[in-house]
Fold PQ loop repeat-containing protein.
Amino acid sequence: MELLTKIFSEGVILSALGGLAYPLLTLLERIQQENAKKINLKDLSFYVSIGIYVFLASVVGYIYFNGKVDFGVNDRLLAVHVGITSPLLIRSLASAFPKQKLLNN
């Protein structure tokens, strides 16, 4: 039980909520646009992508806030910000790696 409370600290939970906010805001924007491509809410990949966003935000939040006990208002806001931006951060890091070309034999 102590391990779970260490892993799921306040910073990790707030980061996960920030990671949940990003796809929900995207969904809200698409609902409000008339000509936008509609999201199929019956599609499992939509929910898997939300789970991936929350997981990535939780991992980055754990790395960033591991061992931090006292959270002030600024730290809580920072934790949500880290959660919202972590999927974008990981995407930009992944695209920064050079792509290897396959050699034809």
